[in-house]
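Quick one, tokens below:
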């Protein structure tokens, strides 16, 4: 149900509010559990396991869960995802106050917490084309992306205060109603299934067994002239930026003689970069999303190269700003390309597959960079990651159609995807 020509219509407002509340809850929950493990004496082993299970299950389980989704049930997947996370925020403190909080139990619950993201994120991205006109899809994505960065930064600050005042266990009781609020808001979203290009039922609604649907998702990505090079670039981009994420704190400490305050300011700079570019994309219409995505990656890679090669603090802040801007310059076009070039029923799975392919490279790149940095130094490893991203971007622009694709090409690809 699309009500008017502005982005702030009823359905989008409910989706936006749900996403913002969820971002607050997610940020608070991760930091609360992190400090809960530290205060409970679980130490570095506990925090390492937390980071692992907070990331990988969501990326890996996405393609497995999304074939079960239907266009008519997207908001219910989001609803039950939030309710599951709310339940976890209730179970952990209750068990803790009753003297039961072993590491394996907390890690298992956080694994479930992460796994629910495998349904929420693909569903929320796929929901936007159902409630927004095609010309407003980019603006909707950019509004959520830029606002989310500001909300996330605020949540991190508030979380630190709450944990310091009430303690980690009691803070979880504050997070509980936030997840419930996010879950309830999506239930107010109402929309009708829009007709696709073909009136044939077999084309508009792919039928078949679970295995056939799972295989279809991978085939769509592989045969898509725009999404396949996009996925390839995201693989190299995430692998190249992993050294920055993993060892920038070490680089600041050892090479620049900085401290935790400098590192915190870097995080703020990254958030500012993401917000500013997201805000710009909410105001400006883009015709070549792929060109924007790859160009931003090349600029980011160049910033990493300069910051790693020359140990000068302003250059490091420049790299942090470039990283944040690239987050928006990649996520917004990526979401918009999927929403405009893939059939409605296939969007959740395609989104999950691209996420899995590209995001798995982050922990791999982090592990490799951590080891290599002990031999060559943190700065050189960060600079080498930048070179990889620049070369990958140039290759994608020269030898694929990603940088040349226009809006009209996305519509053509959507028609072709129905025939897969």
């Amino acid at each position: 149900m699309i009500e008017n020509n502005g982005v702030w219509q009823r359905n989008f407002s409910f989706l936006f509010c749900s996403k913002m509340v969820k971002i607050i809850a997610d940020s608070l929950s991760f930091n609360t559990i992190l400090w809960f493990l530290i205060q409970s004496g679980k130490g570095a082993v506990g925090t390492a396991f937390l980071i692992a299970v907070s990331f990988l299950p969501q990326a890996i389980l996405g393609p497995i869960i999304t074939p079960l989704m239907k266009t008519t049930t997207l908001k219910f997947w989001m609803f039950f995802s939030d309710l599951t996370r709310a339940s976890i925020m209730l179970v952990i403190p209750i068990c803790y106050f009753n003297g039961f909080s072993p590491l394996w139990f907390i890690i298992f619950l956080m694994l479930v917490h992460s796994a629910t993201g495998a349904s929420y994120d693909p569903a929320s991205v796929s929901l936007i084309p159902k409630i927004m006109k095609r010309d407003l899809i980019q603006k909707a994505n950019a509004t959520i992306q830029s606002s989310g960065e500001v909300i996330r930064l605020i949540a991190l600050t508030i979380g630190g205060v709450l944990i310091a005042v009430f303690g980690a266990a009691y803070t979880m009781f504050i997070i509980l109603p936030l997840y419930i609020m996010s879950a309830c808001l999506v239930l107010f979203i109402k929309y009708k299934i829009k007709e696709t290009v073909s009136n044939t039922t077999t084309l508009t609604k792919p039928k078949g067994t679970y295995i056939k649907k799972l295989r279809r998702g991978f085939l769509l990505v592989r045969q898509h002239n725009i999404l396949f090079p996009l996925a390839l670039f995201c693989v190299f981009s995430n692998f190249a930026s992993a050294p920055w994420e993993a060892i920038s704190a070490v680089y600041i400490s050892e090479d620049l003689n900085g401290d935790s305050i400098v590192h915190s300011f870097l995080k703020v700079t990254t958030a500012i970069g993401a917000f500013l570019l997201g805000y710009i994309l909410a105001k400006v219409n883009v015709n070549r999303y792929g060109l924007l995505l790859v160009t931003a990656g090349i600029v980011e890679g160049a910033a990493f190269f300069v910051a790693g090669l020359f140990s000068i603090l302003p250059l490091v802040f420049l790299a942090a700003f470039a990283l944040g801007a690239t987050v928006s310059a990649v996520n917004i076009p990526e979401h918009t390309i999927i929403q405009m070039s893939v059939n409605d029923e296939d969007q959740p799975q395609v989104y999950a597959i691209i996420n899995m392919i590209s995001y798995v490279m982050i922990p791999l790149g982090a592990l490799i960079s951590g080891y290599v940095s002990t031999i060559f130094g943190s700065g050189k490893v960060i600079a080498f990651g930048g070179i990889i991203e620049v070369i990958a971007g140039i290759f994608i622009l020269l030898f694929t159609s990603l940088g040349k694709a226009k809006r009209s090409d996305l519509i053509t690809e959507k028609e072709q995807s129905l025939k897969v």
